[in-house]
């Protein structure tokens, strides 16, 4: 991983694409009014349901029930008004962790291909070519995944206020919690990408020379297999993050 890729990965959404961020803010602002109306609607439905149930049982709304409903409404309103700030804080926290992990790695910005001592010039050329091609595809794939991840985060922030309005309805509350997990999974993907990219040079350096002792064909196939696995791991980072957060 080079410094440019790390900067893109840890860049705020506003800095990554100011135009897209401004459009997302416009959409989010429009969603806020609709979300507040939904919150009031859900609160009214809850109060009506409570009132009907209590009347059928010969009871009435107590002060405790009123406080509970008002508290749920206050939490829902807080989430609607400040969900953008909550998401920005989560992104900032993960960006700090990503930078710390990258800096503590084995020279992540100056990783070099192994020198393949003891191998014939044919195998050296082959392994060097596989490493260079894999690294190039990995860099391109990483930038595409960063773009996809940023697009996902823009979308989540744009619709966040509508989704968190579901907090008011008990039957819809899991949707709200699941949405927060999806956002965390998206920012967690950045950390997984860094770990995968940092591990690949170390694995190649330590393993290719060992495998080469078993024969040229085995070494060649293993080199190709490692490159394919590396690309698969990059593109599987999103699924891995979702599995960790236990969301689909």
Q: How does this model look, in words?
A:
By secondary structure, the chain is mostly helical. The chain is 82% helix and 0% strand. It has helices at residues 3-9, 13-16, 18-56, 63-103, 121-164, 173-212, 216-235, 237-245. Helix 3 (18-56) runs antiparallel to helix 4, helix 3 crosses helix 5 (121-164) and helix 4 (63-103) runs parallel beside helix 6. The model is unreliable at 106-111 (pLDDT under 50).
Topology:
Elements: H1 3-9, H2 13-16, H3 18-56, H4 63-103, H5 121-164, H6 173-212, H7 216-235, H8 237-245
Helix pairs in contact: 3-4, 3-5, 4-5, 4-6, 5-6, 5-7, 6-7, 6-8
Q: What is the H/E order? A: HHHHHHHH
Task: Please state the average pLDDT score.
Answer: 79
Number of strands: 0
The major beta sheet can be summarized as: none
What would you call the shape?
elongated
Q: How many DSSP helices? A: 8
Helical/strand content category: mainly alpha
């Amino acid at each position: 991983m080079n410094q440019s890729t790390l900067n893109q990965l840890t860049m705020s959404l506003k800095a990554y694409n100011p135009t897209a961020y401004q459009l997302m803010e416009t959409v989010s602002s429009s969603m806020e009014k609709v979300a507040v109306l939904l919150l009031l609607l859900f609160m009214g439905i809850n109060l009506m349901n409570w009132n009907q149930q209590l009347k059928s049982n010969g009871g009435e709304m107590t002060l405790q029930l009123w406080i509970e409903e008002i508290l749920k409404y206050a939490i829902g309103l807080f989430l609607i008004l400040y969900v953008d700030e909550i998401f920005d804080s989560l992104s900032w926290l993960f960006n700090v962790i990503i930078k710390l992990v990258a800096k503590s790695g084995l020279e992540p910005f100056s990783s070099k291909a192994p020198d393949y001592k003891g191998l014939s010039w044919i195998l050296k050329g082959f392994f060097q070519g596989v490493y260079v091609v894999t690294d190039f595809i990995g860099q391109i794939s990483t930038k595409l995944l960063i773009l996809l991840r940023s697009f996902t985060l823009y979308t989540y922030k744009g619709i966040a206020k509508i989704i968190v309005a579901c907090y008011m309805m008990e039957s819809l509350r899991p949707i709200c919690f699941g949405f927060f997990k999806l956002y965390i999974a998206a920012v967690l993907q950045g950390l997984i990408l860094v770990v995968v990219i940092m591990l690949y040079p170390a694995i190649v350096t330590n393993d290719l020379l060992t495998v080469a002792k078993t024969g040229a064909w085995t070494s060649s196939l293993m080199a190709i297999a490692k490159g394919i696995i590396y690309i698969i791991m990059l593109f599987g980072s999103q699924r891995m993050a979702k599995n960790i957060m236990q969301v689909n």
